Amino acid sequence: MMSRILIHITRAALIVSIPVLLWLAVSHLSQSLIFPDTRFALEKDDKVKIGMGGVEQRFRARENGLTKIDILFGGSKVKDGGDLSIALRDERCETILTERKEFVTSINSGDTTALSFAAIPDSSGKNFCLTIHFEPKGESEATVFVVENTIPEEKISLRISMKDRPGQSLAFRPFYGSTSLEQNFSELNRRISHYKPWFLKHHFLSACFIFGSGASILFLILAIFPRKCLTHDSNGDTTRRSS
Amino acid sequence: MDISPKPPKAPRKTRMGAVFFENALLFLLLDAFFLKGVFLAALFPLFTGQDEARHYNTIQYIAEPFEKTWPMEPRAHKENKNELLDYNFSQEIIGVGQAAEVDAIRGGIFRTADFSSGKGYDGKNENTIREKSWQPRNTYSPPDIATPGLYHRLGAFFEWALSGHDLLVRFYAIRIMSVALGTVAIFLAFMIARALRFDRHISLLFAALVAFQPKFSMYTTNINYDALLIPTFFLFTLGGILSLRDGLTLRNGAILLVSTILGVLTKQTAFILLPVLFILLSFHLLRHLSQKRSRFLSFTLFFLVLIGGLSFLASHPTVKNIFPTHLSRTEILTSFEKYRSESLTPGRLALSSRTYWGALGWNEDIISRRLTDVLWPIEGLAAIGLLIFFIFKKPEFLPEKRLVAFLVLMILALQLGIRAADWSIFRLTGALDLGAPGRYFLPNLATHFLLVFIGFGALVRSREFLRHLLVASVILFFAFSFYLTVSVVAPRFYL
Q1: Which uninterrupted H or E stretch holds B381?
Q2: Angstrom distance (rounded) from CA B96 to CA B397
Q3: Does the distance separating the beta carbons of B478 and A230 come in below 8 Å?
Q4: Would you tell me the crossing angle of helices B52-63 and B150-161 to the nearest 10 degrees?
Q5: How far apart are CA B379 and CA B449, in angstroms?
Q6: How high is the ipTM of this complex?
Q7: What is the phi/psi pair of residue B78, to 5°?
Q8: What is the third-level CATH fold of A35-177?
């Protein structure tokens, strides 16, 4: 009797674990379903030290829902540490809209550094100012990458250490997110469909994902409740036992 | 004479229903793996699989006319290759790769293709690719190709059959071929568990573990000869188990022979199956000797196999390259010690293990970083269980000891083979150019899972407990695989 109760409890726990684990996996994706404007190049071109006055990059947001900015820092010597401050300001570079301030002893140059914030719903067409300041301790120094400005109408101007840099922009990239999950998944489907044959685009792609996941979950549920015919230790192929 | 009344037969409908359900669950698993695999094949952009562009170039090289009637430009292989143009690939691979911004994607972990300029569901240069603006011909000599094998020849059939279509159709069709081969491997994993006399449910769960192992799922979506090597190893394991269980019948012998031939024709790694086959044949012959019939014939056959096998192995170039018979004892020991100190370190073993289980190293999430911290103690426990299994009386629901010993032999053989090959390259170049990445050990994936859970079975000594342990493990692997797909791979390439 006890063992039957234990079996039922175990099966219930296993059944419940499936949606919980799926929700954990999918919720992470939902939160990261924000789309970069890939016209903003992230290239390791010229490396420039962040000196007095810091970095001021003015840019125009193309869409609504501006919610993150990725910045490509150069290989920096910050062993002695320093105070790094990244801020998104209004178009006059005055009022701080959001800021990230921390004391750092290393800056990742293999990947981008992110400034994430609550989505600005009406950001489309508005000008913003991205500022970066670094107050070094000891002999630390931080650098950023600077690239050729191919979209001057959107990457308006760049100023580093109080010097203007015409024709150049910071290596950064804005991200936009929609409040509609359906729109976000649709955009993700659109992107995945790029450079795929017709049978792996759009609806075919969605069908693969939905039916593949559905079949997997159905299998898991049925596997938790096996029928007697599966657990009966039959040797229906009646092969000879070795001596 | 048995005069006890026969039990009544189950109604025909119930029997048919049982048969249907038995097979439906297996087909559901195979279906789930195939569809999931096709989606994964679409998720990874062009040429982002392991050595994928080289393997696809090998397929194109086989598919192109034998007589090279077009101009070939001699170009030595470059030392440092940063972009597709640096490789001696076909014009089409280079052209399409550049159009699809493959160099941009591979240039850094933060880089993706430019999606902003694409029209709807097509990339910005997709029309150019559809117009087949480049020839699928290698114009650089020597071309950058892998050792052509059976897998490449199968791929070349698809390349030829779909030659009227653009590269996107051909390339992804061959990726789907790899997924189909992976599906065959799942079926063989099920058959191996059944051959070990596990019931259908437990056998399905073992097959599901393989199906949801993340690295296996991802690797079988690539254009790579390992997609064929893995099922041939599984087939060989099945043949070995059946022969040890039922004797060396025509069927079992044919499975062993066919799988060995297929493996050797696919990749050099499969050469390790030859000594294992040799050990199996020796075992069967020696068993015949003990049975007092045709001893003379058995002795003769045994010595012929022994001499023939050893001569073949000793004279084969692959074996000669791997085993340093030309070096002195001191040189061998010095070389091996140097290799051991660089390769068999905790850090390298952990990296190999993490990549084996599916960690991609693209992000710093706690699961991928701490995976081995969780799995190694579990495997350690299972190893203790295996020792108990061999030393003491086994629980009746677990397989025969000699069958499990064969599984251990398969693990040791592949480990030895890969390490020996890695050491041979190390002796030549002084660096770990080959390495032992986790994917090299995937051909023993089914065997690995079986041994781990047989070990647990010996510890818990309860079939039902083992069954629930398996179900829980399958759910965890599914969740991890799902997480990697939607939260690591998709964001890496598209967000």
Answers
A1: helix B366-391
A2: 55
A3: no
A4: 70
A5: 10
A6: 0.86
A7: -75, 150
A8: Jelly Rolls (2.60.120)
- Structural domain boundaries of chain A? 35-177, 180-225
Question: Cβ of A8 under 8 Å from any chain B Cβ?
Answer: no
B263-298: string of b/e by CB count within 10 Å (b at 16+)?
bbebbbbbbbbbbbbbebbeebbeebeeeeeeeeeb
Among A44-48, A239-243, B7-11, B182-186, the least confident range: A239-243
pTM attached to this predicted model: 0.86
Count Cβ atoms within 10 A of the Cβ of residue A216 and give its class: 0-12 exposed, 13-18 middle, 19 or more buried: buried
Question: Do B494 and A191 count as a contact with CB atoms less than 8 A apart?
Answer: yes
Q: Report yes or no: B410 and B317 within 8 Å, Cβ to Cβ.
A: no
Look at residue B92 in the predicted model and tell me its pLDDT. Answer: 95
Pick from B288, B218, B185, B180: nearest CA to B49:
B218
Q: pLDDT: is B387 or B76 the higher one?
A: B387
User: For residue range B349-395, what is the model confidence (pLDDT) as tens digits?
Assistant: 777 787 788 777 666 666 677 777 888 889 999 999 999 999 999 99
Could B487 and A25 be called an inter-chain contact, meaning their C-beta atoms sit closer than 8 Å? yes
Write down the pLDDT at residue B124: 87
The answer to whether the beta carbons of residues B281 and B274 sit under 8 Å apart is: no
Q: Which two tokens stand for residue B224?
A: 């790579």
Helix (H) or strand (E) holding B254: helix B250-266
Query: Looking at per-residue confidence, does B199 or A77 come out higher?
Result: B199
- For residue A159, report the phi and psi dihedrals to the nearest 5 degrees: -135, 125
Q: What is the mean pLDDT of chain B?
A: 86
Residue with tokens 């962040």: A50
pLDDT value, residue B354: 78
Which of B110, B166, B208 has its CB closest to that of A70? B110
- The alpha carbon of residue A52 is apart from the nearest alpha carbon of chain B, in Å, by 28
* Helices first, then strands: H and E counts in chain B: 21, 2
- Choose from B26, B31, B35, B204 for mutation: most chain A CBs within 10 A: B35
Tell me which of A162-176, B11-25, B75-89, B220-234 is least confident: B11-25
Residue A158 bridge partners (DSSP): A57
